[in-house]
Amino acid sequence: MKVEEYLKNYIKSKSSLEHAFCVKNLSLKIYDDLKKIFPDNHLLDFENAHKLIEASALLHDIGTFFGGVTALKPHNKTGAKLVFENKIDGFEENELKVVCASIRYHRGSKPKEGKHRLFSSLEQKDKNKVLVISSVLRLSDALDKLHMQSVRDIILTYDFDSSALTLNPGINIMFNRGIKRVFNKKKTLFEEVFKLKICLKNDRF
User: Fold this and answer.
1) Residue 174 and residue 171: Cα distance in Å, rounded?
2) All residues at 6 or more sequence positions from 52 whose CB lies less than 8 Å from its CB, including other chains
3) Which of 39, 134, 142, 169 has the fewest CB within 10 Å, making it most exposed?
């Protein structure tokens, strides 16, 4: 099944579809900015990065629309299982596993070696891809928490003295405190993966 077919078959609301594309665009922007800031970071240097990020972002909430409110598993686990079982056209097996694991870890628990079967089955280079993609997805998902696309572009800057990243979302965070609260909760995996701090800034306007 193609990514587009998943979206057509499972995502029925306009706001949910717009959220998926918003998360995709923000995730790609964050990844590309990170590549510019840290050109020598080996974690960011992997083949087909945009392909994997796009699919993971567009499908990150796909489990929400499968099984309804009575689904026994959280939507991240349901989505990962759905995509793994139905495959994605044009994706090799290792790419499919990376996407499914990234969907699995875009929320909830962090990857756990030895405890989570899919993640544990990956080679180290693919585990690194999952860590990067899922940690970026968490940031992007938080920025569009309300599914209103209030954050459409971001600017990442880095202070080498304090080893801290600043993400400017281009909106007044004082009027969007829910975003800041969720962002601070979901940023922990990113900070662990990249071994640095990241915070929101509100000075574009």
Assistant:
1) 9
2) 46, 95, 98, 99, 102, 129, 133
3) 39
- Other residues' Cβ atoms within 10 Å of the Cβ of residue 28: 17
How far apart (Å, rounded) are the C-alpha atoms in residues 84 and 131? 18
pLDDT band at 173 (very low <50, low <70, confident <90, very high): low
Residue with tokens 């880095």: 158
Query: Is residue 26 within a helix (H) or strand (E), and if so which, with residue range?
Result: helix 14-37
Q: How many CB atoms lie within 10 A of CB 27?
A: 27
What's the pTM? Answer: 0.91
- In order of 87, 93, 121, 136, 199, the CA distances from 98 in angstroms are 12, 9, 11, 14, 27
| pLDDT per residue as tens digits for the range 38-83 | 999 999 999 999 999 999 999 999 998 875 544 556 899 999 999 9
CA 30-32-35 angle, 5° bins: 110
- Other residues' Cβ atoms within 10 Å of the Cβ of residue 60: 31
